[in-house]
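User: Can you recover a sequence for this backbone? Please restate the input before giving your answer.

Assistant: Of course. Working from this structure:
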């Protein structure tokens, strides 16, 4: 599966946010990358603002253009607020749920756990990061993977109560996807209405 493998600090600096997780470079140089990044005063057009928000959402969730476009079309066909449904679909991806459960410190790490067959859904191994998790499903660490040091380190001190739509059982290393999160419960600072406006052009 294709994925972004370029310099992550450069992307974080572009948006001014640590969208891939804690970033030492961003903390030192909180301005856009490039020779004139610290002195740039270029006026951004309405289209540019909308496009930047879409790019931010794509990089945050680790989704490429075609996947993102397909999710948007699915959100459009659904009843409700399109932008909110789009974020809910992104939050329901298996790699994101694994990340929210604290099994990996980043979404990229969560994607790797899924791809390497360390994660089960309702007792069955699923190695597709884009798999859509439904309410009531149980996401767990595969029995032979429970001793992985990376998972133990990530879970150490992790606060599961910050995400009210998931429930974690430490004794069996499994979490339950209770319900689709509301927009208020999703902590990302994405302005989804700008993305809707972009696709509506």
């Amino acid at each position: 599966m294709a994925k972004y493998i370029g310099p992550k600090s450069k992307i974080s600096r572009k948006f001014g946010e640590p969208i891939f997780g804690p970033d030492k470079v961003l903390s030192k140089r909180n301005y856009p990358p490039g020779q004139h990044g610290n002195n740039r005063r270029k006026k951004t057009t309405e289209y540019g603002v909308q496009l930047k928000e879409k790019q931010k959402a794509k990089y945050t969730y680790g989704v490429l253009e075609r996947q993102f476009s397909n999710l948007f079309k699915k959100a459009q066909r659904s009843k409700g607020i399109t932008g909110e449904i789009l974020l809910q679909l992104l939050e329901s991806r298996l790699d994101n749920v694994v990340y929210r459960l604290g099994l990996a410190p980043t979404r990229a790490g969560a994607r790797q756990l899924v791809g390497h067959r360390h994660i089960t859904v309702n007792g069955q191994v699923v190695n597709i990061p884009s798999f859509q998790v439904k309410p009531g499903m149980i996401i767990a660490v595969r029995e032979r993977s429970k001793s992985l040091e990376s998972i133990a380190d990530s879970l150490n001190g992790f606060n599961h109560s910050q995400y009210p739509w998931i429930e974690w059982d430490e004794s069996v290393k499994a979490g339950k996807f209770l319900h689709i999160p509301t927009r208020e419960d999703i902590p990302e600072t994405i302005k989804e209405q700008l993305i809707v406006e972009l696709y509506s052009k």
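That completes the design. Residues 8-89+189-199 form a domain with the Ribosomal Protein S4 Delta 41; Chain A, domain 1 fold (CATH 1.10.1050.10).
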